[in-house]
Each structure stands twice: as C-alpha cells, then as structure tokens.
Specification:
The chain is an alpha/beta fold and about 400 residues long. The protein is about 45% helix and about 15% strand. It folds into 2 domains: about 5-175 and about 375-390, Rossmann fold (3-Layer(aba) Sandwich), CATH 3.40.50; about 180-370, Rossmann fold (3-Layer(aba) Sandwich). The chain is built from 17 helices and 12 strands. The chain is globular, with a radius of gyration of 22 Å.
Length: about 400
C-alpha cells in the first residue's frame, strides 16, 4: 500500500482516536516504508496480512480477470487475519469498495461494527451494474452496525441513488483534512528557497509552479504539459515541478520528452523527494503557485495541504474541489481539460502578486476553519463511540 490521500485521512483519525482508545492498523504486506515510518512515529500499532493491492490499469479482459482474482485473494487473506482477532467490542474502519468486496463486508458485519468512508464520487456505470450495486448497498445498509461516511459533500450526493433516504440522511460528512501542527511546524522551520534550489537543482530565477499526485491522465498531466508548451513561448520565467510517487515508466518518460520542456518541467518521484514528510512539505511550500488541473477528483489532500501552507491554488472546477476552492476567494477555478483557461489563470496570477497573496491567505484561513485534522478526529470519535454505545469521555 502506497502513501496517499486516503492514508493521510485515516492517519488524522488515528492520531486523535488513539488518545482515548486502542488503535491497530492492518496493512497488506510490502506496504510503503514511508507509510510505516509515519505509523511508527505516531506510536500506532500495525500488523500485516498476506496480500498485495493491485492498482495497475486493467485495460484488457485478461488483466481485469487477473485483478479481480487478486482482489478475491486479498479479501480472503484479510478475512482470515481478522478472524483471529477479538472484534466483539471493536470497530473496523475499512477502505474497500462494497461492489468488489461485498462478501468480505458481509462476513465482517456479522462479527463487529463496520465503517466505510467514500473519498471520490461513484463512477457512471451501466444500468444493470447500477441495479446490482443498489442491491449490495441495500443489503449492507440494512445492518444496524454498518455505517457509511463521506469525506466530502459531492461524494455523499453521488451515493443518493444507491441507498434509502434514511441511510442517506444518516451519512456524516467528515471532511478530508490536514495535520495543522505539522503544517505550522513546516512554516516555522522550512528551508530557504535557495536551499531547496540547491538540493533539487532548480532554477532560482524562475517562478516555481507545482502539483502533487500521480502523473496520470485523470490528474490532468497532459493538459498541463500542453499548456506549458504554449506558455513558455511567451514566458521563459516559468518552471513546473510535479511531485509524484513511483518513477515514470519508459513510455511516459518518452512522451514527456516529446514536449521539449527540459528547462521548464521536471517530475520528482517519492524517492527523489526524500523519505520524510517534511521533505515533501518543504518542496510544496517553496512553490509560488500550486496548479491542479485534474479532470476528476474527490477532495485531494495535496490541494488542502497547499492551501494550508498559504499557497495560491489553481484547480479544476470538478467534483468536490469547489468545496475547498471558491473562485477568486480561496483560489482560482478553471474548467477541466481547458488549456486556454489554465494558461490565462497562470499568466494572470503570476502577474498579480497582491491577488496571489490574498488568495493564499484566504486559502489558509479556509483550511483552519473547515479542513483541520482535529475536527475530523472529533467527528469520527463521536461516531465510533456512538456505535459502541460508549459515553464520550468529555461528556
């Protein structure tokens, strides 16, 4: 399992809940060392079940069958592992899809209380699949000890056609959040721009633009490069760095090189960025502008972290992003897949220093008010204790 938005979401909950209750994390073997080191640093107990999550694309029938079979083996292994646990007075907050892990969830709902959080809106599917999903949701939500949570309002709305009005109204929105203490520590102790430039060999004389996430089409990687190619013809003072996870494949690297943006664009893998969370935050904090031209999204933690660091953000007006980025109030919204709007937004914001600062300051205030980790932790602790029928300790 790799480090990502869902993992940061759960870590925020665990930090808060572990102050009053025992927390244990069950992970697949070969989970990312960065994730494990973060659990260790927060004194959170963890153990492994046999299995490896398959996140690679399944574009052929053979690959789809292979991935489905791998999912089945992972679910079976996780069920066997949990069967050895005493779950009678416990809560299992699990990150699986009910349509592909229905049997696992049915097994668990007979053993303990289950929480399931959705982070991205449900996809558009065929009518017959929709009927099947409604049936599965109907069976699961019929159990009193099965609880749905949404990490943003847009996701909650996408569930409405699959569940009863009663279940829909019971869903709590517990927003994706950031660790404000960690962010504040970074703002106090971050290295200088010159130090960042020397460490990563960046051009100090240019504006730095940044994005964080997988370098994939859904994240708008190609629309970004299309825009940069046009933009650098009129502005030579732009440098964009994309902070990703795994190194790019040879095919993707070749396509990136075809844009001839060597002096204006670089991709950094997690290994190149550094092993500490502080390395990523330092890199993100050094940017003049955060740009996320995704075609579809949930509510990305990377975007919220950039806002918390006081960065002016350009982001696509899609899915849950407008719940954080209000146009010309806490950031700048553009239409998805629109290189002209993206180009104009970058050019305008680099030219307007005062607007850039204002939007960055407002973005920071929005995160403190709505997307802080203590608020998320308090919401989830209340839901957990209600499910366990335990009176909250502070009441």
């Amino acid at each position: 399992m790799e480090w990502g938005g869902a993992q940061i979401y759960f870590l925020s909950i665990m930090r808060f809940v572990s102050q009053n209750h025992q927390v244990k994390v069950i992970l697949p073997e070969n989970s990312a060392e960065k994730l494990l080191s973060y659990l260790k640093s927060n004194n959170i107990e963890f153990e492994f079940f046999k299995g490896k999550i398959d996140t690679q694309k399944a574009e052929t029938i053979g690959r789809r069958i292979q991935r489905r079979f791998n999912d089945y083996l992972c679910n079976l292994s996780l069920a066997k592992h949990l069967a050895r646990q005493n779950l009678k007075n416990s809560i299992v907050h699990i990150d699986v899809a009910p349509w592909s892990s229905f049997t696992l969830l049915i097994y668990l709902v007979f053993k303990t209380r289950i929480f399931l959080t959705f982070h991205t809106p449900l996809p558009k599917i065929s009518n017959w699949r929709k009927m099947l999903w409604r049936l599965k949701f109907g069976i699961l939500t019929g159990f009193e000890n099965f609880h749905l949570v949404s990490s943003n309002q847009k996701v909650k709305e996408s569930l409405q056609s699959y569940i009863s009005p009663k279940t829909y109204n019971a869903i709590k929105v517990a927003y994706s959040s950031v660790n404000l203490a960690e962010i504040d520590e970074n703002l106090k102790s971050k290295p200088s721009r010159k130090e960042i430039a020397e460490k990563y060999d960046l051009p100090t004389e240019k504006f730095w633009l940044c994005n964080v996430g997988q370098f994939i089409e859904r994240k708008g990687c190609w629309i970004l490069l299309d825009t940069l190619k046009k933009l650098v013809k009129i502005r030579k003072d732009i440098f964009f760095y994309w902070l990703g996870t795994a190194p790019l494949s040879p095919e993707i690297l070749e396509r990136v090189k075809s844009y001839d943006l060597d002096e204006h664009f670089r991709f950094f893998s997690a290994e190149e960025i550094g092993s500490r969370r502080a390395d990523l935050l330092n890199f993100l904090s050094a940017a003049d502008l955060f740009v996320m031209p995704s075609l579809e999204e949930g509510l990305p933690v990377a975007l919220i972290e950039a806002m918390a660091l006081g960065k002016c953000c350009i982001a696509s007006d899609t899915d849950a992003i407008p719940e954080a980025v209000e146009h010309l109030q806490t950031g700048f919204l553009i239409a998805p897949n629109d290189s002209v709007m993206l180009e104009n937004a970058i050019e305008n914001l680099l030219r307007e220093d005062s607007l850039r600062r204002k939007l960055g300051d407002n973005a920071r205030k929005k995160v403190v008010e709505k997307f802080n980790d203590k608020k998320l932790g308090a919401i989830m602790l209340e839901l957990y204790e209600k499910a366990l029928d335990i009176k909250p300790l502070n009441k």
